[in-house]
Structures are given as C-alpha cells and as structure tokens.
C-alpha cells in the first residue's frame, strides 16, 4: 500500500521534473492506468477472477485493501459465476483520493471505468459532475430493473440521495465511528470493565484512573475530523454547515466554530496535556495502537472491528460514542463514512445493463449478509439487517450491531442526515490541520476553529464558482 | 587554435538535433505552456466546465497565508538539507581521505545510501522514528524527550531533513573525495614545512581548492531539496502536521492531484517555474563568476 503510493509519487516527481514542473497531468493519448498500479500485496495475491469468461467486461475500480480486498474479489467472482453475460473485473487503484484522481484522469482521457468506488467526502464533487456520472436511479429505470430506494437503510441511502429522493450512487461500504474499550486495561485500573463511559464526563473519570494505573496511552482516535468534528456535530444535533449541512445548495458555510465545537476541541487539547489523549494521525493509525494494547480506549470506524478482533489479545467492548451531556438533545445519531459506487457516463446501454445486474446481485440479501458479517460495515439493505438479526448473529457477536443502532438512534434531523460539501477532501484537511495545531499546543482552540472555518469556506466558494 | 567542423548539408544538423528538440518540446514546452494556460482557468474536477479567470488564481495564491508559509518552509528546508548535507559529507570525505587501512570498505559503505530511493530512505527513517514503535522514539523516551512527529511540526521537519540529508550524503561525499584526492600533495607538504597545522592546512590550502566543488554541490543540493525530496515527504509526513513540511513541490501535487484544484495547482507550477528560471540566471550570470576554477 505504502509502497504503491510512494511509487506513484516517485513516478510523479520524475515526470514533474522532466516536464517542467507541471505535475502529472494526464494527456489525452495516455493509457488510463498510471504505471505503478500493481498494488496487490505480494503476500496474498487476489484470486484471479474466473480465467476465461465469455461475458462483457465491466471495470470496477476500488480502494479496498487486505481482507476487504478479498471480500471485493469474492463478490465479483460470485457474480461472474452466477451468469455468463457479464464479467466484473475489480481493480485496486490506491487509496480513496488516489482512485478518484485516477478515475478523473481516465475520464478526461475518455477511458473511465464503469464503476468507481468514491468515499463519502467526494460525494458533492461527484454529484456536481453531471456529465461525468450516470445516476443510479436513472440507469435502473432505463434498464427496467426493479429498484426501490426504500429497501435501503435510510441512514445510508439518505447520504447519497438528491433533494427529489433519487438515489445517485449505490451504497457499498458504510461505517460509523464507535468507541472501543480495552476491558483488561479497565480491570487493571480498578474500573468496571462492563461499564464503558457514556459521557465525556465519565470518560474523564475513567481516563484519570487509567493514567494512574500506568497505562502508556489512555485514549487515541482515528480520523480526527470525521469523529471529533463531523460526527461530534451530528451526535449533538449541531450543524456542521448552513443549508442543512450543504444538502440544500452549494452556497453553504461551515459552522464548526460554534462555542460547543470549540469547547469540545479545547477539552481534547486539555486531555492531551494531561496525558489522557494521544494524537496518532489523520487516518486509522490509532487502531494499531489500540489492538496492540498500547492505548486503552479508541474512537474509530466500526469497520475496524474485524481487524481489532483478529489482533487484540485482550477483551474489548464496542460502545456508543461518548457525548457531552450539557448539550441538549444529545445523543442524536451519528453519520456514516465509507464509500459508494458511482457509475460513470458514456458507456453503451448493454454495459449499463451489466452494471444494473451487478448492483442487483450486490444488494441481494445473501451477499449483503456475508459482507456485513465479514467486514463490520453496516448492511445496506433493511432485509440484510433483519436476516442477520434473525440468525442471532448480534447475540453471538456482541458489539457488531452498535454501529447500526447508533446510526438509527433517533430519526435524523437536518444536522444529522449527513453532509454535502464541495471539495470536502480539502475542507476536511484544513480542519485537521487546525486541530493538529491545537493538539500540538501551537494555537488556541477558538482561533484554530475560526481559522478552519474561514479557510474551508474559501474552498467552498471556489467549488461554488467552478460548478455554477 | 580551435578546430571547427562545419556541416556542408543544410538540413543534416537540424535532422540530428530534431530528436532532442522533439523530446524537449513534448516533455517540456508543451506541458509548461499547458500549465501556464491552465493557471488562468477555473475548472471543475472532471474538466466539464472551464472558465477563463485571468489572474485570479494567482491573486488567490498570494493572498493565501499558507502558500506564503510554504515558501518559508521550502527555504528553511532546502537550506538545512544543503548546508547539513555538505558539511557532514565534507567531514566524512576528509576523514575517509586520511584512512589508510580498510579505506575501500569505508568508502563503499558511505556510497551505499545513494542507491536507495528517496521514498525507501524515508520509510526507513520513519520506522526508526515512528511515534509508537520506533526504536529511536523509544530511546528518546528514556532520556525524557517526548517524540511524536505526526503532531509536532519541528520534529516532522527534523525527520524529513535527516532522511533527505542521509540520502544525499553519498553523492556529496563522492565529489569531495575525488577532489580531495586531486589536491597536489606538494602544496600540503609545503604548508606543513612552513609550520601550518592540520586545521590550518585544511582551511587555507585545501578548502579554497574545493570551492568550485562546494559551489557545484550547493546548487545540486538545493535543486535536490527543492524537487527530489518529494518522495521523502510523501512517504513520511505528507506535508503535515498542520502543513509544517509542505514544501512548494508537494503543495503543487497535493492541490492538483488530491484536491483536484487544477487552476490553483497550475498557478503554483508557474510560480515555481519562474523561481527556477530566476535561480538559474542568477547562478550563471553572477555567482559562478566569483568562484575560482
């Protein structure tokens, strides 16, 4: 993974040097596959998708690594074996931003894939690219495929639905941040391992005892902006931005410098100073520190469960995110992260027919049940959730239903339906940069969040201007 | 007397340089002009809508304090890499020059890191300094230093400087060693007879003779720090934390490829291009004259 990215980066810098500092803008005649794409982890080469298949090829670019990559290949193999007309070829294209960039370059070169996995923060960018995408509801209608958005989990589908209730992309892997607790560390600190903190107040009490018991790292978090700004907002029913978090128009503005947001960041900074909170980075670096036993508590994606279960040599529990009980209405519900499948424009009707068939297969209860149970992502259809419940899976595997219960905690409000901000890849980075400045003790929380809002709003204005 | 070879044919010389020219045009001029053209445009990610915005991308760039900060970071980073890299390799070269036994082994080992790709070098150092599992992190903790380069900007800068310097030392070392070996022994012996100690001999006799090499290496190291350290940064800090290691080249990549802001990224490329042109002119017009060869 790392090497793949660095190889791409290297190729890029060479090209940059050679072609006069312009960077690696893909030229029209260039083939769509950037050279360094051979990312398959040497250790576990994915099973080749059915050697000789007579069907029409459907390209599916994704960003799933490790065990998730295997699951993706399983789904494609299953589909290919189930019929003869189409052959889905999954291609790993790097991390989310990279596969999106690759697809954009390919689109400009006229050779985009049929299906592209795009992470949730890219949603607004994809929606705005009207000529580049084929909305899923439209494709389904043209192919006469029975398709009812109501079959899909509201908390998931709502994120990818336009104002008229049309589903634009196909939900695929959705997760939400949850709160993991190392029960053994709790025992050692003299805490009740079955009572995980529900509020940040209780959290502080537990953190103090854990620290006193000699715990090297008390708490860490993955995805700082997603957990502590975006989901903090929805969990406390606070707006992230105006215009219903951007759902009602591009002329939205961020509101994450509210007193409640600032107080939360200040609280984390205070915990960092006390040694109760250790910053680990912007992605999921913190997860390894949790399952190695270094950190006793963790907030990160519910999809980390599989990995934690596999690696942790201690008892742990999965819980709702802590909330601030001084904010009225909390806890509301959390919002999803993860990715959906977008269909690219400019393909033949026959090929769209194949994509339609594949999506129908993907949404089938059997495939979804296996996906949900095997990965920790929430199921995308209500039927798959019910089937899993009926099979007694949640009783046998406590914690696996926390994500879905947290997403459905209350009926979503305008503040907790999701978010839709243009260029939010950049916007989120700005927020994370400012958070880092606070945790490093270089900035005051208020000043940092004001600056984050100002910079992120500039990015929104630029997006608005480019997508009038 | 200069011997001149003149082509009789009118077209042959052009035909001979044509491949070079073609490569230069395709890989340099064409993209450069396209970058310049893009820098005046506002485009959505997929290139569906394009609007001519004149100098607005540039105006936004220079009103962005983070872009100006990136300038300062680049300056600091390249000076650190060039100065430390040259100083350390000069020291190593003078040492290696005096070694009598096993000289070849030392020299070979010192040259090895050059064979390592910048990204790989960076990953090696990042492992040593990793916040939770790094062996140096552990050692630092024992002496009471709290090391977490994913959060502390200064530490992140130190890490990328160390990785970049380590990678470049071999190159500098080779040049210094070659020049040291070509310093006439008679000069040094004469100085010794006049009563100059080793330090004095080095600074008054050897070092002035090394001036052209040092100047050459200064230029090469600056260029290295400016452009080739991309791999180091991408593999370790990715410009963070809070933009503390975001050098200009990395920002071009970041804004263009991760954020899909082609106009802004192209404007930055144009600015970089102007800087490089200016630096080259200064080098060859003014600085080079003052160095004795």
Please explain how this structure is put together:
The complex is a heterodimer of chains A (468) and B (293). Chain A is α/β, with parallel strands linked by helices and 468 residues long. Chain A has helices at 2-18, 66-82, 96-108, 123-128, 136-142, 154-157, 183-188, 200-212, 224-235, 242-245, 259-274, 285-291, 305-311, 349-363, 365-375, 382-390, 393-396, 402-407, 424-439, 445-466; strands spanning 56-62, 86-92, 115-119, 133-134, 170-175, 177-182, 217-221, 295-301, 316-319, 337-344. The two termini of chain A are 37 Å apart. Residues 1-45 of chain A have low confidence and may be disordered. Helix content of chain B is 71%, strand content 2%. In chain B, helix 5 packs across helix 7 (153-182), helix 7 packs across helix 9 and helix 11 (248-258) runs antiparallel to helix 12. Chain B starts with 11 loop residues before the first helix and ends in a 6-residue tail after the last helix. Chain B has a single domain, classed as MetI-like fold (Orthogonal Bundle), CATH 1.10.3720. Chain B is built from 12 helices and 2 strands, in the order H-E-E-H-H-H-H-H-H-H-H-H-H-H. The model of chain B has no long low-confidence stretch (mean pLDDT 87). By secondary structure, chain B is mainly α. At the A-B interface, helix 1, helix 3, helix 12, helix 19 and helix 20 of A face helix 1, helix 5, helix 10, helix 11 and helix 12 of B.
